Amino acid sequence: xxxxxxxxxxxxxxxxxxxxxxxxxxxxxxxxxxxxxxxxxxxxxxxxxxxxxxxxxxxxxxxxxxxxxxxxxxxxxxxxxxxxxxxxxxxxxx
Length: 94
Known about the structure:
Helix 1 (7-28) packs antiparallel against helix 2.
């Protein structure tokens, strides 16, 4: 019986850790302006989110009962409601 290494998961994990360290370096150790630090952190976050979705969250799988796009849409709606509600509460001092 041979065991296969989950090479995709290992590559995804190492890449995610590297992107996290790159974002931390951009925030703490670089001489970039605040605007470029924010742009670089957002870009690294988008790349890391894509890696997480495709390598760990089985976004590319298909089959009966597997509707990742439907779940992602509903998760995004809930996240938008939470963010909008939080901003409303913080803005108007409730």
